[in-house]
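Many introductory courses stop at the sequence. We go one step further.
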Amino acid sequence: MSRTEIMLTEEGLKQLQDEVTYLSTVKREEVAERIRAAREFGDITENSEYDDAKNEQAMLEHRISLLQEKLRRARVIKDSEIETDKVSVGSTVTLRDVDAGEIRIYTLVGSAEADPARARLSNESPVGQAIIGRRVGDVLTVPVPVGSLHYEILAIGKMS
């Protein structure tokens, strides 16, 4: 596994920590209970409930391990480090699509907390890479599979 830093906002760090805690306590106990119940069905060599529960346990432990590794590699961007004069991880950026005239607002986050459906873009995404380090008034071109997008940066703020 790569040892590169994983950039997280303070909110993203808390979410990962909460997920590890939940999976390590509540979810582990639920899966252990499923395994105990499946054993009561008798011979485990031909017990699909037992096999399913053991598979779920393996996937759960893998997920916990991945999250713990992300936490070990985390570089937390503190609110005080988020700049408003240029785009950085933690910035909320208002963009105008130059071609369509549409206004879009994105929050730039590390890849571990990216969620495009919530307008949280990874700093490693094409748009994220194109806007990082830019300032209000900059016009930029983002190459995408269907051509290029052209954006103007209208505002930069701290994530809310």
